[in-house]
Design brief:
Length: 309
């Protein structure tokens, strides 16, 4: 099955009230773990590439590894640019074979965001590629995205309707309380499901995207810290909140931090428990297994996208 756009998987998610997992990739182990977990669960999946990942792994390597994963599986796989910073980056990814791109104009004012998003949409649609846009601003740090809590803001439902109508974007990332990175909440976790409900009322047929939605799995944080890590006070979105989001209107949920934690936790464990190991296959193999376990849990127990391929 060749790479697909997100169009059909999102249509199904809206109709059947489940979310699609969008998992960030950086190297071979990430790609193998994510696609194997999705294939075994018979779930559609979105592989996301950030600008930072492109700088790290190089475009051609990422493309070829994703092509290999497509040949090894029999599920719908979309290749998506996460947080495209400008038109040029989006165009590069579209021309390289991505089936979906995100243009993140949330750092601009409303009119400028509309203008740059519309420009990307026009080019992408001419090539058969779909576009995710963002309205509202999430706090936190992830690759090239760095937003302080003071600058974060929720998405306005009325603006969301106008934005989608004027830009023609295919899906919309909204801000309802999540944030990037491992430190999402200082107190109790809280998401503004009332805002989500108002946005879905205004845009019932538009796929809604939730960024900054890693659970920051406590067991993985603990494993990191027990084996030489220093990640105190990390806190993410509880699984039950993410499940509720998928059931009440979110079609795409992004996961990056949890996969980083999974890899780091196992690498640290192997180094501490087996200090004589220097074969990368030993510690990267363990890391790949942990990422696969994490993705399988998300797909089956949280996003409920298993058997939806």
């Amino acid at each position: 099955m060749p790479l697909v756009t997100t169009k059909e998987m999102f249509e199904k998610s809206i109709k059947e009230h489940f979310a699609i997992g969008a998992f960030n990739i950086n190297n071979m182990e990430f790609i193998q773990a994510i696609t194997e977990a999705a294939d075994e669960a018979k779930s559609p999946v979105i592989l996301q590439v950030s600008s930072g990942a492109i700088k790290y792994a190089k475009m051609n390597y990422l493309i070829k590894m994703v092509e290999a994963a497509v040949k090894e599986t029999n599920i719908p796989i979309a290749l998506h640019l996460d947080h495209g910073p400008d038109f040029e980056t989006c165009k590069m990814c579209i021309d390289s074979g991505f089936t979906s791109v995100m243009i993140d104009g949330s750092k601009y004012d409303f009119e400028e965001n509309v203008a740059i998003t519309k420009k990307v949409v026009e080019y992408a649609h001419s090539k058969g590629v779909v576009v995710e846009a963002e309205l509202g601003k999430l706090a936190g740090v992830e690759d090239d995205v760095n937003v302080s809590e003071d600058d974060a803001r929720y998405t306005d439902p009325d603006q969301a309707k106008e934005f989608v109508e004027r830009t023609g974007c295919d899906s919309l990332a909204i801000a309802i309380g999540t944030s990037h990175g491992a430190y999402k909440f200082k107190g109790d976790a809280k998401l503004r499901f009332d805002i989500l409900a108002k946005i879905k009322e205004q845009l019932p047929d538009t796929p809604i995207v939730l960024h900054g939605a890693s659970s920051v799995v406590p067991e993985l944080v603990e494993m990191c810290n027990q084996n030489g890590g220093d990640i105190p006070g990390a806190k993410g979105c509880p699984d039950e909140m993410l499940k509720q989001a998928g059931e009440t209107g979110v079609s795409k949920i992004n996961v990056d931090t949890d996969l980083r934690l999974a890899m780091t936790a196992q690498v640290r464990r192997v180094f501490k428990e087996e200090p004589s190991v220097f074969d990368p296959r030993k510690y990267l193999g363990a890391a790949r297994d942990e990422i696969k376990k994490t993705v399988a849990h998300k797909i089956t127990d949280v996003f409920c996208s298993a058997n939806k391929a």
